[in-house]
Amino acid sequence: MPLSMYQASVPVFVQFLGGLAGLLDRTKAYAEARKVEPSVLLQTRLFPDMFPLVRQVRSATDHALTAGRIAGAELPKFSDNEASFDDLKERIAKTIDFLKSLKPAQIDGTEEKDITIQLGGGPRAFKGQSLLLSFAMPNFFFHTTTAYNILRHCGVEIGKRDFMGAPRPA
To answer: What is the dihedral of CA 67, 70, 74, 78, to 10 degrees?
Structure first.
């Protein structure tokens, strides 16, 4: 049986967004234990021309919403002014709730659907499958991985299991 557009997107986005929320929990605990001002971690970048942690998380959620674009659903609105770990976790939770509200029938069969999104100030046309597999998924993983790398660089004790959203052993 072929992999469906729904299976390739919603469960994957939900799993890794859950992992990202867990990373933020561990980072908040790290900041409290070491008396690090949270804004320092939230604004950390790997390099000056890269986005800070807060923007990496925003971007990851934005790319996960592609499943809703493909489905033709109204996307949740965000203020884009998150300034705390809790704000970012709320954004992730809202994104996960939205994704879980989507049904396979809304997404499956959209491989050839014409979808236009705004990129760099202008429209860009995609087919559904290309938007998901060649644009949204790579960007989603780029931003979640970069968020993870920022946190590891800052010394937060996290690993691949955390990134993957896997339960921690007892």
So the answer is: 40
Q: Are 36 and 139 in contact (CB under 8 A)?
A: no
**Fold (topology level) of 5-164:** Four Helix Bundle (Hemerythrin (Met), subunit A) (1.20.120)
Per-10-residue mean pLDDT of the chain, 170 residues long, equals 90 97 97 97 97 98 98 96 97 98 97 94 96 98 98 96 81
Q: How far apart are alpha carbons 13 and 79 in whole angstroms?
A: 21
Sign of CA dihedral 32, 35, 38, 42: negative
Please state the domain extents for the chain: 5-164
Reported residue count of the chain is: 170
- pLDDT value at residue 22: 96
Structure tokens at 161: 């299991």
**Which DSSP letter does residue 134 get?**
I
Q: Which helix (H) or strand (E) holds 168?
A: none
Buried b (16+ CB within 10 A) or exposed e, 43-64: ebeeeeeebbbbbbbbbbbbbb
Cut 0.85: pTM above it: yes
